[in-house]
């Protein structure tokens, strides 16, 4: 059973507004990409990191410790393109692929284990999902409430998202009606089942400076 991971890290991090691409921004001395690959490497046999164009070298240096199983490629303009480019480099003998955002570098190992467990149980797509705590309203374009949704059937999806290699390849080979912000969207569009497992608060995507402050505080609490 061979498991590969794709780590999309090619975004610029516009909302974070740092002077470096987001994946190279450090929290408590280690970059987001270094932290993400450190976790991913414990669960997979090979890793492909999609780096921002022009930053392949610093990304390679950041993940040097795992270079035996890690390769770095140049990512694309969109997240989907970055994942597609990485997917094209995977060998055909890979059984499962986990796609994990570099920006979610604090995801606990237990979530990886849950996703892998779901794949090994025969599911072709498995994604972590967190329930909603607030009351959820659907609104119209004029910002008026249309109705209150039943939050028990709604959730926020995270990464790592796991797929059989053939399912992810088929999904990426198709045209998509909207810009896919995650990979499971494309699998849904094919009409294939996507199983959800329990996500985790620590899988928060580092997006803004407030997220970075949250991460710094988290690590400060963990420090001895
Ligand atoms: N990503 C990527 N290639 C892109 C765009 C995004 O590999 N062309 C990656 C990011 O590096 C990140 C993940 O997809 O790990 C989730 O994207 P997001 O959090 O939106 O990161 P950015 O696109 O970098 O941030 P922003 O949208 O604020 O510019
Ligand atoms: Mg983005």
UniProtKB/TrEMBL annotation:
Keywords: Isoprene biosynthesis, Nucleotidyltransferase, Transferase
UniProt xrefs under CDD domains: CDP-ME_synthetase
GO molecular function annotations of the record: 2-C-methyl-D-erythritol 4-phosphate cytidylyltransferase activity
Enzyme Commission numbers on file: 2.7.7.60
Metabolic or biological pathway, per its Swiss-Prot or TrEMBL entry: Isoprenoid biosynthesis; isopentenyl diphosphate biosynthesis via DXP pathway; isopentenyl diphosphate from 1-deoxy-D-xylulose 5-phosphate: step 2/6
Top enzyme category: transferase
Keyword Transit peptide included in the entry's annotation: no
Pfam families: IspD
Family: Belongs to the IspD/TarI cytidylyltransferase family. IspD subfamily.
Name used for this protein in its record: 2-C-methyl-D-erythritol 4-phosphate cytidylyltransferase
Organism annotation: freshwater metagenome
């Amino acid at each position: 059973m061979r498991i590969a991971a794709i780590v999309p890290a090619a975004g610029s991090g516009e909302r974070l507004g740092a002077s470096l691409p987001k994946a190279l921004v450090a929290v408590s001395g280690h970059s987001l990409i270094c932290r993400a690959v450190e976790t991913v490497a414990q669960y997979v046999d090979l890793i492909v990191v999609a780096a921002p164009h022009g930053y392949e070298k610093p990304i390679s240096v950041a993940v040097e410790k795992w270079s035996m199983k890690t390769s770095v490629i140049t990512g694309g303009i969109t997240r989907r393109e970055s994942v597609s480019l990485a997917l094209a480099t995977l060998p055909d003998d890979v059984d499962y692929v986990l796609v994990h955002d570099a920006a979610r570098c604090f995801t606990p190992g237990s979530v990886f284990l849950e996703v892998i467990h779901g794949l090994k149980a025969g599911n072709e797509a498995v994604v972590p999902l967190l329930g909603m705590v607030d009351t959820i309203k659907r609104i119209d374009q004029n910002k008026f409430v249309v109705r209150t949704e039943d939050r028990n059937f709604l959730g926020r999806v995270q990464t790592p998202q796991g797929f059989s290699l053939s399912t992810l390849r088929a999904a990426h080979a198709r045209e998509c009606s909207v810009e896919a912000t995650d990979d499971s969207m494309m699998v849904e569009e094919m009409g294939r089942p996507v199983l959800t497992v329990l996500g985790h608060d620590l899988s928060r995507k580092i997006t803004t400076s407030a997220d970075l402050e949250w991460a710094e505080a988290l690590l400060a609490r963990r420090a001895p």
